[in-house]
Amino acid sequence: MTGLPHYDAEAILAIVDMSTCIGALRAGSLELGDLHPRTQVSLGPTDDFLMMPAVSPAGIGVKIVNVVSGNRERSLPLIHGFYLYCDRETGVPTATLDGSALTTLRTPAASALAADLLARPDAATLGVFGTGVQARGHLEAMLVVRPGLDRIIVSGRTPESSVDFVTDPKVVGLAGGRALVAAGSEETAGCDIVCGCTSSTTPVIPTHAVRPGAHVGLVGSYSMARREVDADLVNLASVFVDDRHAAAAEAGDLMVPAEDGEWSFDAVVGDLAELCSGRVGRTSDDEITLFKSVGLAAWDLIVASAVVKAG
Fold first, then answer.
1. Could you tell me which residues come within 8 angstroms of residue 235 by beta carbon, excluding any fewer than 6 positions away?
2. What is the arithmetic mean of pLDDT over 98-111?
3. How far apart are CA 120 and CA 135, in angstroms?
């Protein structure tokens, strides 16, 4: 019996680059179909086992992810994932894929798609909170949709991690000659586009430093235990989400202020599908826009389908 073909991280990135992934999500987000809830099993105070199923005309798939915070001390990735892709018509398993690589690609691609639709066209500076794979992916993705960015400021958990990130040859290569600076949270939050790519349990982006007209994209929080911004910023910004139901169940940045009575999900302006269709968007140059993503299993399926069909 022949084994299923497996696409590792290198193969996935060779078949679907960031620009192609953004385009696939732009088209696919207009018709996501029925979304299925993520199953989350706690492995401890900050660790999780996640299962994310999806069904669409593109196929059937499920991603399994382990998030283990102690892996940093073990010099291992924070997140490990595995993906099973099946034929939509027959249900026959077709391929397996590196789930972490899918996450590494589709999460920043979705953030960049939202930024392309919400950030000011003249955005010149990019602030990135975090120094992991998502931080690097977001840097790459934002430069695809805003190639005019000329300065990138990074704030990590420690000054040392920030310096290591901005001097990493791979990051320097992605920056393509643009200024790369390690700085504190206030300078990073003062950029035209701000990306939250941390696993922090407390807010890391200072509200008072976010400037009028900025666009803020958040991907780090997927439960009540994690937050990257406080209630003040959520109230100050026009809030957009990847999906309303998913955000109400998983987005700690929004759930905490909602539970505390400081904000309401009724204030959500729109979701990614509505952004892609042009039904909602930025309304003024001074408006602060915030896109909160918890990640949709449908995005994994869109990218996995593209990989399998092209491979």
1. 257, 262, 263
2. 92
3. 21
How high is the pLDDT of residue 1?
38
Which candidate, 63, 23, 17, places its Cα nearest to that of 40?
Answer: 63
Q: Mean pLDDT over all residues of the chain?
A: 93
User: Could you give the domains of the chain?
Assistant: 6-103+298-310 (3.30.1780.10), 107-295 (3.40.50.720)
Nearest residue to 101 via CA among 250, 291, 307: 307
Rounded to the nearest 5 degrees, what angle is found at the Cα of 80, between the Cα atoms of 97 and 73? Answer: 155
| Closest C-alpha to 118, from 14, 19, 242 | 242
Distance between CA atoms of 185 and 182, rounded to whole angstroms? 10
Taking the C-alpha atoms of residue 29 and residue 47, their distance in angstroms, rounded to an integer, is: 29
- pLDDT of 255 strictly over 50: yes
Q: Give tens-digit pLDDT for 125-183.
A: 999 999 999 999 999 999 999 999 999 999 999 999 999 999 999 999 999 999 999 99
Rounded mean pLDDT, 8-22: 93
